[in-house]
Design a protein that fits this description.
There is one protein chain. This protein is an alpha/beta fold. The protein is built from ten helices and six strands. Strands 5-4-1-2-3-6 form a six-stranded mixed β-sheet. The longest helix is centred in the middle third of the chain and has 23 residues.
């Protein structure tokens, strides 16, 4: 049985931002169950059946007609619950332009397109960094993690397919990330918590590119106090992923005798 559970969602994948971000929250089974219960109670108090950060902030969908104060209160209450019950957070962004410049066309086509390739890289970087955080910051030398992604974001099918292959293959040690699954965000409060994380981190990334950036929101500051890895891939750090994904493509073409690349993917810290 897995010792930890990690849940991931995306932001910036359904628009023209050019910077898809995948973010996740990591908890023990007890922490996940406790947050799920508290999250559901908070949603009932606000008259919601599920939480979607974009809708809550824009006051649309279930949140249509809300005053700004109610929207802020919902964010603050849920962020408080999140920080009380999760162990760590991860978030990784990848430039679509860097993918188009650096990756072979055959690999990009295999993964479904340049944005899908960026999402696959961000997703797997998050999973690697989840394990690294649990080893280095939480102190578990051999963490066993179940990974769950929101169903439906660009590239998620390849994330699941690659995850299933790696989990059942000869790859072990650093590469044995654990089982990878997907579920509907509106049915799983922990995925809604990951959605809140992804939205906050992406909003801050956009804010930092403004001529006069605003101070970080209190919600983001609270999340930043947890053990975390928030990063943007540099062109240099994507080199390992060119090698790894090219090998995965070769596996599909040549079978399981293709050599495994020994270089581990790495990201650059954003802070």
């Amino acid at each position: 049985m897995a010792t930890y559970r990690a849940y991931y969602d995306d932001s910036g994948t359904h628009d023209a931002s050019g910077w898809p971000i995948v973010a996740g929250v990591v908890a023990t089974p007890h922490g996940s169950a406790t947050l799920t219960t508290e999250w559901a109670g908070t949603l009932r108090g606000f008259g919601l059946t599920f939480f979607h950060a974009k809708d809550c902030w824009a006051r649309q969908g279930q949140c249509a007609g809300w005053p700004r104060e109610r929207s802020r209160a919902c964010f603050e209450t849920l962020a408080g619950a999140l920080t009380s019950h999760v162990l760590a957070t991860v978030a990784v962004g990848v430039s679509v332009a860097d993918v188009e410049r650096l990756f072979p066309t055959k690999v990009v086509d295999y993964l479904g397109g340049s944005k899908e390739t960026a999402v696959v890289i961000a997703s797997y970087s998050c999973m690697y960094q989840t394990h690294a955080l649990l080893r280095d910051r939480i102190g578990d030398p051999h963490p066993a993690v179940d990974h769950t992604f929101s169903r439906g974001f660009p590239g998620y099918g390849k994330v699941l397919a690659i995850g299933a292959y790696e989990h059942s293959s000869r790859l072990r040690g650093e590469d044995n990330l654990g089982p990878v699954a997907a579920a509907r965000m509106d049915e799983v409060p922990m995925l809604q918590a990951a959605d809140l994380m992804a939205w906050e981190v992406n909003r801050q990334r956009v804010n930092e590119f403004k001529p006069a950036p605003l101070p970080a929101r209190d919600d983001l500051a609270r999340l930043a106090a947890l053990p975390r890895f928030w990063a943007i891939h540099s062109p240099e750090s994507l080199g390992a992923w060119v090698l790894r994904l090219s090998w995965m493509h070769a596996q599909q073409q040549l079978g399981p005798n293709a050599r495994t690349p020994r270089q581990s993917p790495r990201t650059r810290r954003a802070d």
